[in-house]
Protein 1
Amino acid sequence: MTFCRTILASLTLASAVLAGGCGGGGAAAPAPPAAPVTSTPVISTPAPSAAAKPSGFFAMTGFNTTTAEKTEMLKLAYVNGMTSYVSWRDIEPAKGQFNFSKIDSDIALARSFGKKLTIGVFTGKDAIPDWVAAEGVKTWVSGQGKTLIYPTDMTFVSLWAARVRELGVRYGADGTVVQVTMCGAAGTLCGPRYPELPPGVVYADLLSAWSQVIAAYQTAFPNTYKNLEVHLSADGYGASLPVDLMAAIPKDAYIGPFAEFLSDVAPTDGSPAGAAFLTAAKGRAWCGFQMVSPLGDKVADAVRRGRSFGCNYFEIYVSDLRQQGAALAALVN
């Protein structure tokens, strides 16, 4: 309960804190000024007066998914939209030099079919720009040999908050962008999932760092749904981190839990991950899942399982959307 009160206070006050920089145990590191966007002009459609809830089947596109494949998916009547995930390295290869062309083109494509988009900028493995080292961002190397942001590094929090502001300026009022995936000092690709942790990480500091990242997203995208990954972590934390973070987020915020492990047999409400997801989703207006892998003729059963958890948003592999159309179309509400 003390943790929750601490993080709730941090969420409430984070806009002011982040504007002046974040620090721990020393002088606060000033947040860099937002750099001008150097890619194509902002393209947007009027945002609805209230946040549009992301729902239905979204094509899970990858870095190498072609425009032709995306077009094929968006033409399907039972597909509501697609994902547009990029890396921090892709959108800002040099400090202050932004390239949002991939997200912009995905927005234009989805809009042309009257469909929606979930966007996310990954900050984990293979996604970190080379220039952040010169800014003093602390990194570590995982057992798999991947360079990652140190989970409680406050220099990163300040830098990333400024980038989230850029994203909000560009896409916060875009009616095609129906959801934003919240990323931070990830242990894998994006969210608060840590298969391993470096030495010296203190749980309270981890909660504080992530709460400030969440607050930055909430400030940048107050009227857009956002998701936070729920998964297990190492060092005995289990799913405590996302559960504690979600517990501190006001119920009326457009934020819900999201998990990448849905199949026809998992999760179960009695498993640690399933129980954590249910706890995180309690009282929330939205929750969602990503399929754990291509599931073939089991994908419809996976959707039913996800709905049993109260969720109606599903990121599905292109191959399953293509090959299991009849079964998925039958599940459209």
Note: The chain has a mean pLDDT of 88.
Protein 2
Amino acid sequence: MRFPRSYEWVMAERFELHAMQILLDYMVRLQHYIQVSLVSAAIVCLLGSCAVFTENSAWEAKRLRKACDAGEFTACADLSDLYRLGFGVPQDDSTAAGLARRACDAGVAEGCYLLGSYTYYGQGTAVDKASALSIWEKACVSGDAESCGSLGAYHNEGSAYPHFQGRFGEPEREPQKALGYFEKACAGSRGAACFDVARFHHAGIGVSKNEEESERYARQAMALLEEDCAQTGARARYGCYQLGAVYSRGFFHMKADPEKAKAYMARACHQGSLQGCYYWAQVCEDGGLFLPRDYKQAAASYEYACDRHFDAACYGLARLHLFGQGVPKDLRTALALYRKITPTSPMVAVMAELVALRLENPASFSAHIDSATPSEECIAGSWDVCPFSGFFDLLCERAGYETQCVRDFDFGVDLVSIGCLIGTEELCPFMNPLLDERTRRRY
């Protein structure tokens, strides 16, 4: 994953970054003593709304480069992470992969974890999943908890660490092997892996069902993640994001807490977590307790993550450009963003064709759709009976996919809504009923 090109401008006000970092660290530690909703409010006041922070790491990058060149190979691994994120140096996957390989060849476990991740996903190097698994195995045997966790995730069909975008492959499910790797990672102080072990005990996957053990591992996970979040850099990115994820949806023995989720995701974003920034952008876009909607800062956060190839953020930024929220209304910019992520998403390819068709021939754009009153079947998601089904077919054909390719309900609602809002009046009668149906399904 990754964060903005050269965005040390993204602060709402030009506070001195090091001092702000100290204050943020202090605020995180206060969460042990003060109700987290007050901490969240304090962070909002402190940052002047939904500001996105980058680490002031140019000096750190120079220091690590000097150390790496002098043969301190742990520094090479750390520098690889900076190149991956674009902190203090231009973002460069190839350089990041080369540095990780150099560290791994010298026996640095963290370097091997990074190299395995780059190799698995083809970041800066060719995709080679078999080699990636071998690299992770070697690092796990050497005691690298992250590599053990990645192997556990692989054998558990993709449940796991969100350090890199994309899903794990679809190997044959081997729960006992997955549990063994998660236990090793948990013993190595990786909180998310302890949650996986807790889940296995809770559900009786690969082990006898045991609620007492599940609760014990869950408590251990929370303690480890709190410790990580109170640090800076990579550990804080990891710990704060994981805590935010736990509180955003709850986890067996812990209830969801939106205010805690906001506070932890903000902290993760400030430390460089793209997932944290994406979540924080959504908070800015949607608003919430203590926080009015702030489309300008939502756009800045989405753009930051999008520039680092976090596709969901590009999708969010395109939406803001379509509606002119926080950024100028600009269909061409939205289309460029859709095109950027089209290779990884057939649905976004269809969305891109919707916008492209609107730009190419606005006069005849609406002629592709027959006007009609929304039917119950159509609103329920039976797209074949909708009067715009032929229009969907056209978009699918333009995108290079088979006819009737739009089957996902949420995406169909997005397509209808955006089509209406960019000028296809025939879709507008369907928009509100579909949005109401989506709300009903979710809640």
Note: The CA atoms of residues 25 and 301 lie 21 Å apart.
Protein 3
Amino acid sequence: MKRQSFKWGLALTGLVLAFVLLIQGLAYLTFYLTPKDPESIRKAAQFEAMMGQAVHSPDDGAVPVVGLEKKRDFSFADVDIPNRHPAGAAKTHRVEEWPIEKQRQFQEAPMLKERVKTGMLPPVLERLPEDPLVVVPPDQNGPYGGTWRRFANGPQDVGIMEARLAYEGLVRWDAMGQQVIPNLAVRWEMGDGGRSYTFYLRKGVRWSDGHPLTADDLVFWYEDILNNIEMTPVIPRDFKRGGEVMGFEKVDDYTVRFTFKRPQGVFLKGLASGRGYEMVRFPAHYLKQFHPRYTDPEKLKSLAKVQGFDLWTQLFEDKRDWRNPDIPRLWAWVMVQPPPAIPAVFERNPDYWKVDLEGNQLPYMDRLTFEIYDEETINL
């Protein structure tokens, strides 16, 4: 009895396996027989149109119903085949430095003009850096105003603002992801066979509270975040070479240098891919009050307890988190109404350090909001 059951099981397994192989074989056959280049697709469409004319439907010859229009004959030959493998993008934005011959002639959004009039903000000339980064749109400049409305499944989805939309590091990739271009660093120099990288920061860039961004912010990151074992138990390999953590030097207020024991040829690509963003998301003037090197540890312990944390590191991370509306940012929009509020609201950063070619301070849109719904509602 057991032997017979075993035979039946073996036969069933073989049948299932044969069925799977048959389906896989048909799939491969379909793939190889399917036309892929535009010329083959065009010929296939013409063949289909020809066969459609050769085959008559049961309705042919029937008396048409009065008042109903006859359907238009459709042919794939009428369809324009898109180019699925373009050599380049049709349109993309580009970045460049502010032309010196234009001097310092800048404009700002109407909502910021009102704040300047009431004394809430200094003039736009004082808020922009010496050499703002210019973003040249692919189609047009402006106009100002409006709200970018987005949807999310939950508060965690709003974190895309920090993870993707706030892509502001020392350097970044161009629109096609092919070339490393300037951002917070105006330029850089590689030396000693790839063991040394010197970056020149954009002078006059300000955090969203008006405090200047300088090399001291990177010193804070390097000494008190990256090399603090409680904050960074495992240092990323992009910041190590030859078994040693990279060196760091503050050359002056707007120049920093990184050094490696061995050549680090992909350091720039690593910075453009996100590592450069890590370096400039810790405003020293704000976060030092939550770090034991600058604030009494007992005071921090008490403050952490009040906030519901056991460790100062938890308090620090909470204050650095994107949900905190008090921490200064370098983003185009900053948090003003965090979750669980619905909608979550980001508002334009009055100290954002980029302009378009006409000198209009970016961004164009006043606000960015996240409405939170379940997935089924969003799909409607």
Note: The first helix runs from residue 2 to 33.
Protein 4
Amino acid sequence: MQKNNTRILFLMLFLAVGINQTVLANEPDSVYLFSYVTIKDQGSSGLRFAWSEDGKQWNQVSNEYGFVKSDYGPWGAEKKMNSPYLFQDTNGEWRCVWSLNEMANQFAHAASANLVTWGRQAYPYLQQKVSFRQPVVHYNKNSKQYTITFISGKEYFKITTRDFKAFDPAVAIHSSEYKDDRVTVNLPSGEATGNMSRVAWQVVTKLTETAQLKQFKNSQAQESFTNDSARFAGLKPLSATVTLKPEN
């Protein structure tokens, strides 16, 4: 069975390469990449991606596969990714900051070089007893610092950092300083709000191939005996005769 699964996997990868070479012969140099979570499950399925050549007609990557999920809190109860904010830092590394829930005075941060492999998640505490909602991140070239503005109840705050390891205490700000630059787009699955960036086409290709491979492996792992009748439908009955010979 393991050998058959391996053959199927190689066949799928071979066909995928052939399709890519044929269908994507006129592939664009770059496209818009949209990152978002679905409010249907409060972001528990993780960060998803869609791409578009013109910013109007969108294609969802691998049936809304979740590339990074929040690992905060007890299993199932608090593992939600709320209002994620995805951006590239000055070194080209992708970073995602998101809200954990409506009460915690913590937030989440994770980084990735390629949007596929993500590093360990961190959950920094805010020094003040304030909640953390709808984060927005901007870089100040003069101070060489990142400013994270966020909402706490009906108030607005900001924190600053240079490396996303150490953070200055939260400071109250006027609502006019909070500028949410997320966009809302119409996806095949419905309207969604998130961040939009311009990326090389190879980024989308890598995301798609990675998701398809993981989905295939997951489907193989979920096989059970209930599928045996379909998998072994072509096997013919085997008859055998056993003769016992007593020892002398």
Note: The radius of gyration is 24 Å.
